Amino acid sequence: MDSSIQYLAVLVPLAVIILLAIFFYRLFSKSAAKDKKYLEDVKNLDELKKRAEFRAAKIISVQPFQASMYAPGMRTVSVRLEIEDSPGKFSMHSVQWMVDDYFSSSFQPGDNIQVKIYEEYIFPSGDGAKLLP
User: Fold this and answer.
1) pLDDT digits (tens, 9 = 90+) for 75-112
2) Which end of the chain is more exposed for a tag (fewer CB within 10 A), N or C?
3) What letter would DSSP give residue 105?
4) Mean of the per-residue pLDDT values for the chain?
5) Buried (b) or exposed (e) across 99-123, using 16+ Cβ within 10 A?
6) What digits encode the pLDDT tens for the residues 10-66?
7) CA-based Rg of the chain, rounded to a whole angstrom?
8) Which among 6, 120, 129, 3 is positioned nearest to 68, based on CA atoms?
9) Single pTM value for the model
10) Among candidate residues 17, 34, 2, 104, the one with its CA nearest the CA of residue 124
11) Local confidence band at 5 (pLDDT 50, 70, 90 cut-offs)
12) Which architecture, in CATH terms, is 53-131?
C-alpha cells in the first residue's frame, strides 16, 4: 500500500505538469502564428506604400480607439478623410491607422495632410502613423 501511494504522489503531479506544458505550448504556438502573420502583413503593406502616389487630403473626423497590443505607444484611430482625386474633385474615405501618441495632435479635424494611395489602400505619408493590416 505504501508503494502505490508513493507512485501516486509522484505520478499525479507529473501528469499535471505535462498537461500544463501541453496547454501552454498550444496557447503560445497559436499566438506566435498570429504574430508572424501580422508581421508579414505589415511587411507587405510597407512594400505597397513604397509604390503608392501622394495625394492631398483633409481630415474630416478622428475617432480614437484602444491602444495597440503590439506597440504600447501607438493607438488605433479611425480617420475620415476628404481626398482630392483630381483638381477640384474630392471623395470621402474612412481608414483605420495606428497613430503614435506623440503625433496624435497632428491628426485633428480640419487639418490638411498628405496621404499615399495605392489601389484601395490609403497610407499616411508621415512616420507617426501606419495603416492597419
Assistant:
1) 888 999 999 887 878 899 999 988 888 888 888 899 99
2) N
3) G
4) 87
5) bbeeebeebeeeeebebbbeeeebb
6) 888 999 999 999 999 988 888 888 889 988 998 999 899 999 999 999 999 999 887
7) 24
8) 129
9) 0.70
10) 104
11) confident
12) Beta Barrel (2.40)
* CB neighbour list of residue 90: distance below 8 Å, 6 or more residues apart: 82, 83, 84
**Euclidean distance between CA atoms 99 and 16, whole angstroms:** 44
> Cell 476628404 appears where?
82
Q: How many residues does the chain have?
A: 133
